[in-house]
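User: I'm curious what two different proteins look like when written out as structure tokens. Can you demonstrate?

Assistant: Sure. I'll show them one after the other, since each token string lines up with its own sequence. Here's the first protein:
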Amino acid sequence: MPLFEGTQQQYYGSQSFTTSAAQAAGGADAGEYVLTFPNNDTLQNTLGTMPINSSDFNVTVNNVATSNYTYNATTYTVTLNSPVSAGVAVLITIINPDLGNYQFISLPTIVNNFMISYVGSDKIIPRTKRSNVAFHAQRAIQELSYDTFKSIKSQEIELPPNLKMPLPHDYVNYVKVCYVDNAGVEKLLYPTRKTGNPTALLQDGAYSYTYNSDGDLAIASDSTTWSRFQNSSNSNSESDTDNYRNTEEDFNLVEGRRFGLEPEMAQSNGVFYIDEQKGYIHFSSSLSGKLISLKYISDGLATDDEMVVHKFAEEAVYKHIAYAIASTHTSVAPTYIPLLKKERFAATRKAKLRLSNLKIEELTQVMRGKSKQIKH
């Protein structure tokens, strides 16, 4: 039995029907079209299952879009509210099909496969609960997301005047932060170590700390350090480069005194710093109103749709689960634990090599630059 279920047309997000006989408008004899997208790992839309409501797809009748239909979310049936002649072609298209999902395998399938292959009276793990397998499977996905899986996500916003960008809910670490110019080119931004947003304690006129009704220290929402950094921009008539250099005095190139210049400071794109405690990315004032792009690492457990495993790393997840259960379960023979630990390490290394996505032609093209002569 093949792993791929459904048709190629369904995979690309559409299903077509041809009316064999004339149908009346509405009622039991109206034109009813049942969506049969397989509800499995190989054919899913962005919702992860069948379309839930009519906003997930479009309907066209003889290449003409229509909204005159009724959708039954229980039976996945689309009923046209106007008469349909014989031979009419009806096309139902999912708005955002989940293309490329065949390379992944879902968490429930991982758990089912593990229970079948590893758990049993004559298996390595004599007995364990499905809930234990599910827990360790999620832990495996989380650990492998940091440095093995392709777990990089991205966000793009227009930076507001307050120069703050909220951290995503599933943020773990950033890959790169940049702004996008008018040509769509990403300009890399660098983190700054020259400023920050420390906790600002409120003081009275005698410089003594003030307290709230609970006896805790009174704290301002933003520090004076951040306020000064935020308000250090010049007028809009000045160029971004001058604006940025005045914002960051230490980054001024100073003609004739460039010895010891730090390369990360020899740029005028702008800088940022991340306030992990308050959950914001702060940017220099020259970036106000610009398009900011954030690429970051996710833990892979934010939503049900994200808890998937690339097939190159499927075996590594099984080995993570097996070792985790064996090392915490008394029913597993202790002699198996060192073996499973070695197998986990080997499977993880193999998955990392498979997912590294190195292409010999691309490497060759990059390495050709090493043969260039640098003239002094």
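Here's a second, unrelated protein for contrast:
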Amino acid sequence: MTKPLRFENAAGREAEEAVSWYEARAPGLGQRLLTEIDRTVDRISQFPRAGSPVPRVAEELNVRRAPVDRFPYHLVYLETPEFLWVIAVAHDRRQPRYWLPRTRSEDLATGS
């Protein structure tokens, strides 16, 4: 059974920016990134526990990360009882845990 999935607005922008960056460097490469992001989304929708817990983040937040194949990105997401919430499309080597403020409980309640 798949769980509904929501994207934080900022995560959507991060994906768009990364796709544009790769597309500007090599036509078609941005589309390949988007395809891999979609595959990762499908995988975590079907298997929410497939992602690894994020180290040094409070365990009760239930934050996980799933790698995006062939690219140096991962999806950072939280599993709630109702849905999965993608809070970041994060580069593997830039600004670790910059997305942590997005895990605030009031944001979870509204799904924003």
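A detail about the second structure: The domain at 5-110 is CATH 3.30.2310.20 (YaeB-like fold).
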